[in-house]
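Researcher: Batch entry, complex prediction.
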Amino acid sequence: MAQNPIFLNEFEDNYRQRGLRNQLVKKLRLKGILDENVLAAIAKVPRHVFFDGALLSHAYEDKAFPIGEGQTISQPYTVAFQTEKLRLKAGDKVLEVGTGSGYQAAVLLAMGAKVYTIEYNQKLYEKTKALLPKLGYRPFFLHGDGSKGVPAKAPFDRIIVTAGAPVVPEALTAQLAEGGIMIIPVGDQEKQKMLRITKKNGKLLKEEFDNFAFVPLLGVHGWK
Ligand code: SAM
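Model: Structure tokens for the complex:
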């Protein structure tokens, strides 16, 4: 079988891949990502490992790509933007809704968070649960409807929703700790506004950022 000209095998991480990651980090800086901890995590996590063979050479482009089951690995800028807006601290307990490929979870873990990640699609859940620990990343994997959150593990210091929601699910804001922050794209199925919800003295403060285009959040509090 012909070998990919850049990547010799999927787990190899040599100076070529590290160089491509550093170039990606430079692009993200130019696009306005300033948090050095986020940039260091992007520089550390081998994104190519989350790609299937045919797409491997595209791993360090600033683009979303298919991961099977009609789902995508988010664009690195989107991952960086959401992570920066989370104002994450090492040790924070984070719920990620939409495990997908596991790349975002790996970035959160690389920043020292304790991560619970929930995926609705059974095949992706199984695939990612098998892959991430091989790379040394060990979140708590859950399978189910993350639009309801994970009440048994609440409260969370941070919640990151990586699929587009029609509304902010109350089930999720209820699971935010006092002082907690949630980042969630909300809108229609074509485009969504990135929202940051902060819980302060029991009240919810809402900030709005740019538009993004995510696959839909499914489930009871998502697109049915
Ligand atoms: N964070 C992912 C990554 O790093 O690859 C990208 C996520 S992809 C854009 C969105 C994911 O959300 C898909 O894997 C999809 O199956 C999942 N999803 C959609 N609705 C969900 C729900 N209600 N609960 C959990 N996962 C959901």
